[in-house]
Each structure stands twice: as structure tokens, then as C-alpha cells.
């Protein structure tokens, strides 16, 4: 199934596609796609890069020494003397005898270094309101919020749920928790009352921080009613803190307190306490293939070391001059590591945008880049493909000359989307860093270094310095260059998940039982002839056609390389003769007209790009694709459609009407030659 975040704990159990059996067969993933384009780093960027090629050598010679050095980029109350304790694998301890305060590292130390006047956050509300928050102001806000949480009875070791829109208070709330040693559990602001309730229960959260609402597609959208509904199911939630954002009418309960009141009466002084490096920092829920979301636990010192280092290395952040913008929601791991902890620990100036890319117009992102002079941009392939569909003329209207590094995360980026990003947004001069990582890995694992790597469209390329990743076959043997199989991580890394909250056994079973001593990421991957890694999508999505494992990603990329296609989602549907047959759903680019002739062209196009085995049996032009709220395509639902089955759980879809639209397309399905 597509990797998504299920709305409720316990609900949404997925079953394997009938007839498909175990898609991880003895046939390793076929290596079909060829990509010859290469792009050298710009000379000036390479010359001044934060991290140069030596880092790989240095980390290879002494991996733990390398991470110990990166840990010294942080400010410790007690410097660690131990780097890694791996005496009880896979339960790692990093920097175990060190002590630090994560919020101090993200806030106070920049003020102490004389940078209190630097803007930490340029907030841009969807309606066009804006607010600049300096590091000195951030320190006051976080300190007041920390004092407020203490007044409400939150203590070190407690859990606080956060359910907020993309507003500065979300950052303040997370850092306030970190400051007092309470773990936050951020629940994405689009989730239902059931999802909130399940997460409150699983983590036993004592306080919930929410808002009346947020702005979404030009309208206030309420948040508090869902929290009220969820909280009413327990007597364990002591307080609900409510940020006033939209001013809409809300019901008020005894346990509710206004954020502005409870923080407004606090001192702006709060002395951060130092916590053990292994003190819990946050829990973030991610779905499993079997329904119940997993509470991924991250701790302090190792997590911050890697979030901070990778942000510095992969974005080449120059905090004095760069303006960074990550468009992810704070409710996803990307928002945690690359809006809050990575950039702020590095003293970055960043943009925080509340709304959607097409409100009030389809150029909103580029208008924001122009307004703030954004130099480092981090977004997702789904957004890039949407911009491709909207047309090249939209970004062309804005001044994007401030950009210098472009990042991608969340899904494999198709080579054509990569090229579009490079040409239309980066104007051919910005390196693209395709960053592979997961909620579980906490921080980036496989990505180019912008001043070092000769980039290849569509490949995340190689493990970052200090990270060990490879591709193995079914038996766990490393595949040779040119081979395909499953991505594994072969050595522990500082920001690795420590366990699944309350369920060590599930942690072992999910990640560590498939290959002895290796972390199983659940993604298909291949190595090219240079040994560079290409991600091929979730293992559960891999198709088995006439005995060959074929990746959805490669077929999708071949489709997107056709000038008429903006986006594609491919699934394997049960088929009497071939086991599974490839069915492709495609969104056409603005100008392309749907016709039988085009469908035939697209099928042939894939056949000639990848070989006859990968030629889709059916190609269905559709207006939209089902996506999770973090933008990942939900292929599981498309499989249901392709196999004429009742749809499975649709609660994680951004827009469930999409499925009705797609279903109406089925009769016009074009079939085989
Ligand atoms: C950071 C994040 C993790 C899964 C991961 C993989 C996919 C993420 C990717 C990518 C190819 C990339 N994924 N980045 N696939 N190339 N650059 O997205 O975390 O929400 O936990 O999802 O996303 O399938 O296993 P998370």
C-alpha cells in the first residue's frame, strides 16, 4: 500500500491485494530505467561549500569519530564522552553520557552569540498577514510558553499533543515542550477527532495545544471542534490550550485556556535545564501496512546532531545570508526536522507559510520566494508535478534569482519533474538535492551534497557521510552495481528511531527481523553502474508481471517523461495470464487533450523507454490522483479500482471525491493491443 498516515489507531487495516501473494518474490527488482544526464555543482558553490568531498573519506575512516565531531556543532551542558552504545542492538544509545537542552540549542545560543536581532521566522499567513520573529523574540516566546506549560502542570517526561495550523505558535509549542523535557506528539492539523483521540490515548498526553482554526484555501477552517470531540473521550487530558488565529466562534470548556492569556502572564525568562542525550524529544505517528499507526520515538542528542548536520550539509546553509523555506507541514517529520530542529539549531532565517500553493493564485509559492528572497527551497515531488501541470508560465512571472539550492523529499522524484524543477525554478543554476529518509530515520540519509555531487535526475545517489546504506536481494546479499532489490541501512545512525512508543516487539518485527543486523526500510531500490542509489517506491507497491518485479516508480517516470503527462500513478492489478498487469492512471498537462490515440502513444512510449515487459495494459487519463495529506500517492486505492473492488479506507485522503471522479473513468479504459 501507499505509505500514509492512517486516521485512527486500530482502524484502516489493509489487506494484501488478493491473488498477489507476497510481492517480494525471489525475482529482484528489474533495473529498467536509464538516465544519462549529469550536472556538476556550480563552481562558486563548490568552492565555498560547508561540506566538501573529504567528509566522505573522513567518515569512512572513523564513522563514530565523525559523528562525535558533528555532535560538537551543538552546545552541550555536559559534553558526551561516549558516542555510540550498541551493546543491545537494535536499541541504540548515542552520546549517552552527554546532557543538553534542545531548545537552548535552537534558540538561546544564537541570542548569546549576538544574533538575537536575526529573523528566525518570516511567517506568511494564507490571507496575506505576515510577522517577522527574531531569535531574541523567539527566546521570549518559547520561554513564556515553557513557563505556561509548567503552570499547567506539565513536567519533564510528560507528553503534550499539538494540533495546530502552520503558525509560529506551532514552533513555539514544540520548542517549549523540548525546553522543559516534555515530549511532543504533533498531530497533523487535517486529521479527524478519531485520529487525535487515538494519538492522545496511545501517548497518554496530559495537555493538548490547538487553535480555534487556521486559514485554508481562502477560508477559516476550524480545528478546535475536533479536539473537543477527542478530548471528551478521556478524563486524562487536564488542559486544552487554544491559540486564537481565525477568531471564529468556538465552544468553551472548563479545561480550556487561551494561549495568549496563559503565556501572556508569564515571565520571558526561563532557565533551560539540561537533559540526558537519550531523553525523549518527540513521538510522531506513522502508519503501518496493518492499520495501527506506529508512535515513532526520537530522543534528543543524536537526533539533533543529525538533523542539524544534514541541514547544514545538504542545504549548504549560510545562516548570515540565506533565506530557507521548507514547504512541508509541521505535522510531518519533514516539518519537525527541517522546519524546527535542523534550521533553528543552525540559526537559519526561514519562511513559514500557512496555506496552500494556489491561494489566492497558482503563483503563490513563487511570489513568496520573490518577497523574501528565498535562497534554499525544500518541497515535495507532488508539489513539483502539480506546478508542471499548472504550466511553466506561472513561475516565469516571478523573480526567482535568489534561489541557490533546491531540495526534494517524500517520494521518488521522476527525472522529468527533476528537470522541470531545475529549469523552471532553478533556472539551470541550482543543484537539486533529492533527499531520501523516513519518519523513522529522523533525518536525511541518502542525498547529494550540493557542492560535491554530480547530480543525476531522479536519483538520491549516495548515503551521506557517516551513513551506511545499501541494496540487498531477498536473501540479504548486497546486489552488485546495476542490480535491484531492497534498501537497507547497515549501521546505526544518530537520529534513528529508538523504538515504537510502548511496543518494542513491533519495533523489532517491523524493521529488524527481515535481515539479520540490518534495518529494513521497506523501499525498493537499485544501484546504477556507478553504485548510485535510485529509490523505486514502497516494497508493497512493487508489481510482479510475468515473474518480473517491476517498480511503480520506473513506469511512472517513463510516463512523466512524455510531454503530455504531468503526473502518473501505476499499480499492478491481478491478471489471469501475467499474475499482475500494469495499470496506469495519468494526469495530462494543461494543453494535452485526452484521446485513444494519446493512450496508445503513452503505452508505446513506456514500452520503448523500459522494454515491452513494462508496457502498461491500461492507461487511464484522470483529473486527480488520490494522495495522503502529506502528498504521497495512495496506490492501494487505485489497486482497488483497477481490480473492481470496493474501496478500502479512504480516511487519509486529502479529498475523497477524487475517487468518484476516477471511478467514472473506468468504462473508457483502453486495453491491450
Ligand atoms: C521524509 C518522509 C518515508 C517514505 C520512504 C520512501 C518515501 C521519502 C524519498 C522517498 C524516494 C525520496 N520517500 N523521501 N522516496 N525518494 N527522496 O517522507 O518521511 O513520511 O516517513 O515517508 O517516503 O518510501 O520510505 P515519511
TrEMBL record:
Q: How is it modified after translation?
A: Acetylated. Deacetylation by the SIR2-homolog deacetylase activates the enzyme.
Q: Which residues carry this modification: N6-acetyllysine?
A: 632
Record: residues binding ATP? 410-412, 434-439, 523, 538
Positions of the Acetyl-coenzyme A synthetase N-terminal domain: 54-106
Record-listed CoA binding positions = 216-219, 334, 546
Enumerate the residues binding Mg(2+): 560, 562, 565
- Identify its protein family: Belongs to the ATP-dependent AMP-binding enzyme family.
The molecule here is called Acetyl-coenzyme A synthetase
Q: Which organism is it from?
A: Streptomyces tsukubensis
Amino acid at each position: 500500500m501507499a505509505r500514509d498516515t492512517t486516521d485512527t489507531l486500530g482502524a484502516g487495516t489493509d489487506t494484501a491485494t488478493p491473488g498477489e501473494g507476497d510481492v517480494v518474490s525471489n525475482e529482484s527488482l528489474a533495473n529498467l530505467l536509464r538516465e544519462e544526464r549529469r550536472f556538476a555543482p556550480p563552481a562558486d558553490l563548490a568552492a565555498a561549500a560547508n561540506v566538501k568531498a573529504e567528509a566522505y573519506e573522513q567518515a569512512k575512516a572513523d564513522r563514530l569519530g565523525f559523528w562525535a565531531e558533528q555532535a560538537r556543532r551543538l552546545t552541550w551542558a555536559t559534553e558526551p564522552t561516549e558516542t555510540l552504545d550498541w551493546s543491545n542492538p537494535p536499541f541504540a544509545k548515542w552520546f549517552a553520557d552527554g546532557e543538553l537542552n534542545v531548545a537552548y540549542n535552537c534558540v538561546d545560543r544564537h541570542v548569546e552569540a549576538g544574533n538575537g536581532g536575526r529573523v528566525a521566522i518570516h511567517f506568511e499567513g494564507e490571507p496575506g498577514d505576515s510577522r517577522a520573529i527574531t531569535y531574541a523574540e523567539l527566546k521570549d516566546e518559547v520561554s513564556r510558553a515553557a513557563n505556561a506549560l509548567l503552570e499547567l502542570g506539565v513536567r519533564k517526561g510528560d507528553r503534550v499533543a499539538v494540533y495546530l495550523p502552520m503558525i509560529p505558535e506551532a514552533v513555539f509549542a514544540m520548542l517549549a515542550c523540548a525546553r522543559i523535557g516534555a515530549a511532543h506528539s504533533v498531530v497533523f492539523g487535517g486529521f479527524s477527532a478519531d485520529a487525535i483521540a487515538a494519538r492522545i490515548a496511545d501517548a497518554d498526553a496530559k495537555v493538548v495545544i490547538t487553535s480555534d482554526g487556521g486559514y485554508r484555501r481562502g477560508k477559516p477552517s476550524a480545528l478546535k471542534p475536533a479536539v473537543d470531540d477527542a478530548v471528551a473521550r478521556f478524563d486524562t487530558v487536564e488542559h486544552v490550550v487554544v491559540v486564537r488565529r481565525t477568531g471564529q466562534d468556538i465552544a468553551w470548556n472548563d479545561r480550556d485556556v487561551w494561549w495568549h492569556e496563559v503565556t501572556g502572564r508569564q515571565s520571558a525568562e526561563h532557565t533551560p535545564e539540561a537533559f540526558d542525550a537519550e531523553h525523549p524529544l518527540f513521538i510522531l505517528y506513522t502508519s503501518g501496512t496493518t492499520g495501527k499507526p506506529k508512535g515513532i520515538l526520537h530522543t534528543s542528542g543524536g537526533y539533533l546532531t543529525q538533523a542539524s548536520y544534514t541541514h547544514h550539509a545538504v542545504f549548504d546553509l549560510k545562516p548570515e545570508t540565506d533565506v530557507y523555506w521548507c514547504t512541508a507541514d509541521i505535522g510531518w517529520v519533514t516539518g519537525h526536522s527541517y522546519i524546527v530542529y535542523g534550521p533553528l539549531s543552525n540559526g537559519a532565517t526561514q519562511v513559514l507559510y500557512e496555506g496552500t500553493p494556489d491561494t489566492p493564485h497558482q503563483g503563490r509559492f513563487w511570489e513568496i520566494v520573490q518577497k523574501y528572497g528565498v535562497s534554499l527551497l525544500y518541497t515535495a515531488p507532488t508539489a513539483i508535478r502539480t506546478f508542471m501541470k499548472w504550466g511553466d508560465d506561472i513561475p516565469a512571472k516571478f523573480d526567482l534569482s535568489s534561489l541557490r539550492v533546491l531540495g526534494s523529499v517524500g517520494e521518488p522524484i521522476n527525472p522529468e519533474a527533476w528537470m522541470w524543477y531545475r529549469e523552471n525554478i532553478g533556472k539551470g543554476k541550482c543543484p537539486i538535492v533529492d533527499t531520501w529518509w523516513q519518519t523513522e530515520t529522523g533525518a536525511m540519509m541518502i542525498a547529494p551534497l550540493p557542492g560535491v555531487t554530480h547530480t543525476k535526475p531522479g536519483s538520491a545517489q549516495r548515503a551521506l557521510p557517516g551513513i551506511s546504506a545499501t541494496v540487498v536481494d531477498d536473501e540479504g546479499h548486497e546486489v552488485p552495481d546495476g542490480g535491484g532489490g531492497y534498501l537497507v541501512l547497515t549501521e546505526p545512525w544518530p537520529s534513528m528511531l529508538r523504538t515504537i512508543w510502548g511496543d518494542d516487539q513491533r519495533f523489532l518485527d517491523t524493521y529488524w527481523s527481515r535481515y539479520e543486523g540490518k534495518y529494513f526500510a521497506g523501499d525498493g531500490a537499485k544501484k546504477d553502474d556507478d553504485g548510485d542509489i535510485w529509490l523505486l517506491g514502497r516494497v508493497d507497491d512493487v508489481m510482479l508481471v510475468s515473474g518480473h518485479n517491476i517498480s511503480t516508480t520506473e513506469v511512472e517516470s517513463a510516463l512523466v517523461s512524455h510531454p503530455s503527462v504531468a503526473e502518473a500513478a501505476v499499480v499492478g492489478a491481478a491478471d489471469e495470464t501475467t499474475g499482475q498487469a500494469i495499470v496506469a492512471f495519468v494526469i495530462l498537462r494543461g494543453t494535452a487533450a485526452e484521446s485513444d490515440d494519446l493512450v496508445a502513444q503513452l503505452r508505446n512510449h513506456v514500452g520503448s523507454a523500459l522494454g515491452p515487459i513494462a508496457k502498461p495494459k491500461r492507461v487511464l487519463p484522470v483529473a486527480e490522483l488520490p494522495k495522503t495529506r502529506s502528498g504521497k500517492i495512495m496506490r492501494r486505492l487505485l489497486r482497488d479500482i483497477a481490480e473492481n473492488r470496493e474501496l478500502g479506507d479512504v480516511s487519509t485522503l486529502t479529498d475523497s471525491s477524487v475517487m468518484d471522479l476516477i471511478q467514472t473513468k473506468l468504462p473508457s479504459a483502453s486495453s491491450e493491443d
